[in-house]
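INPUT
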Amino acid sequence: MTAMITVKDVSKAFGGVIANNKISLEVPEGRVTGLIGPNGSGKTTLFNSIVGYHPIDEGSIKFEGVEISDFRVPKIARLGLLRTFQQTRIYSKMNCVNNMLISVNHRSERFVDLFRDYPSELTDKAEQLLDFVGLYSKRKLISGDLSFGQQKLLEFAMALMNEPRMLLLDEPTAGINPTLINGLIDRLRRAATEMGVTLFVIEHNMPVIMNLADNIYCLANGRLLAHGTPEKIQNDERVINAYLGGHYLVEEED
Amino acid sequence: MTFNWRQLALYGIIAAAGIAAPFVFPAYTLQITVMWVMILFAVTWDILGGQMGYNSLGNIFFFGVGMYTSAIVQIGLVYDVAKYASPVGGIKAVFTQEQYFTGLVLGFIAAALVCVMFSVILAYIVFGLRGPYFAIGTLGVTLSAGELTGAWEYVGGGGGIPMPVFPGEPDDRSLLFYFLGFGLAVITFLFVKWMFSGRFGLAANAIRDDEEKAEGMGIRTMRVKTTGFAVAAFFLGMSGALFGNMIGFVEPLEVAFPTVTFGIFMVIMCLLGGKGTLWGPVLGATLFHAFKEVTWTYMLGWQWVMLGSLIIILVVFFQQGLVGWMQEKWPEMFGIEIDEGTVAVALAGPEIDEGPRRGGAVQ
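OUTPUT
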C-alpha cells in the first residue's frame, strides 16, 4: 500500500491566523481517507494547499513522489489530482453533456487539439457517467437549471470524466437530500473500487464518513488531533471533546 | 454538424445580396463596405466579450495598429516614410499599379501578423485583470496608443499620413474595397464559426461561466484566452489595413484609434444582437449600422442623443439581445432543451432534492 499523497509539516497562516500548523498526513492509494474537524479547523485550507490554490508557508507536499508544493492549480490538475468545491461549481450556462466534455483531462492536449472536435467515444463516455450518477435524462438541459443536489452530482461526474488519479471532495453530501446520501456513498465507493480513484473526503456528516472512509484524520485548531480507523476515531476522547466544544481545553494544554 | 438546407439557403441569400449590393445601390457602396467592417468588428469582439466573458473596450487597438502597419509597409516599400509623412518639404508621391498592389497585399499580411504579435504580448499583461478592471485596462492601452502615435513624427504624428493613391478609376477603387471588406467579413465569420464548433468553443464558455473551476479542471486557460485574442487581432488588423486604404488618410485619434466611436460601437452591436451567440453580432451590426446611418442622415444634431438612448434601452431592458431573446422564446429552434418534465433516474430510487438553486438563497 503506497502513499498517494504525503503531506509533511505543512503550515499556512493568513496574517495572524494560523490555519494549518505543522500538519503531516498520508493518503494511501486506492482507499477512501476522511478528514474531519470542527468549523474553522483548517480542513479546507489544507485542501487548498494541496491543490495549489495558495502557496504554503513551510513543509512539503508530495503527490506520487513528486513535490507539488510549488505548482499552481492547473498544473496539479493535469497531474491527475482534482478537487470539488464546497460551493458547487459547474459551467452553469452550458448543458450537462458539454459540461462533461470540457472536463476531459488536458494532460496530453496539444495546441492544435483546441480546434478539433470531440470523438464520439467521449460523448458516449460522458453519457455513461451521467447515467452513473443518475442524470442521464437531464443530459441536454442547461446545467444551471438543475437543482442544487443535481448540480453536486454533475460536478462529481465531471471530476470522474477527467479520469483523475485522486479526488479531493469538499463536503460531498452537504445540501443533498438525506434519502439520496446512501446512493451517493455507494457511487463514491464504486469510484474508488471500480475506477481506482483514490478519495480524500472532508465531511461533517459523521455517519457518512464513518461508513465511507477506511481511515480518518481529525483536525482541530489547525493541528492534527487524531488519526486512525473510524472505530478508533469514534472512541477517541480528544475527538469527542473537539466536537463538543472542548477544543478550548486542547489549546490551553500548549 | 448535419447538412442543413435552411442554413444553406440563408448563406446563399447573404452571399447573393453581398455580391449584388454594390451594383444595385452604387451610391451606397461605401456605406455598405463599412457595414461589412462593422460585422467583422462585432464578430471578433464577441470571441472574448461574448463567449469568454472578457469585455474588452480596447479591441479597436488592433484596428489602429493594423492601419498604421499597412501604411508603413505600403509607403516604405517605395519611399522613405519619414520624408513622405513630413508636412514640410514633402515628396510628390506616385505609386505605379504594380507598386500599389504589391504594397496592398504585403500591407494586409504585415498588418495581420504585427497585430497577432502585439496581441500575444498584450495578453500577458491584460489577462491578469478580471471583470471591470480588464475593460478599463484594455481601454487604457488603446487611449495611450492613440496618444503615443500622435507624438510619433515618423508617421506624421497628430497630423496623420496620406495613404498611397489608387492608380485607377474611382469606381474600380470602391468596388475593390467593397469586395475586400465583404470577403474579409465572410472569412472572419466562417473562421469564428468553425473555431467555436470544436473544443475551443467549450473551453471559452467554461472560462466565461467559471474560470477558477476551469483552471481547477486543468484547462490551459491562458492558452485559450491568448488564442481568442490573437484571432480577433488577426482579423481586426486586416480590417484596419482595409479601412485606412479606403479612407485614404490615416490619423491617430479619429481614424486609427476611434475609441468612442468604433471602439464602443462594437460592444453595442454585440449587446443589440445578443452576445455569446453566433448570429447575434452579425444581426446586431447590421441593424446598428442601419440605425446609425438613418439617424446621422435624418436626425443630424440629435444622432448622439438617439445613440445614447439606444444604449440605455439595451442595457436596462434588453440585456440578452435579439438572438438571446429569440433563444429564450423559441429554444427548440436553437437545439436547446429546457424540458423539466422528465423525471430523473434518481440515485437510490427516491426523488432528487430540490434544494436551493445556484445563486438563490444560501449555501
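end of record. The two ends of chain B are 39 Å apart (CA to CA).
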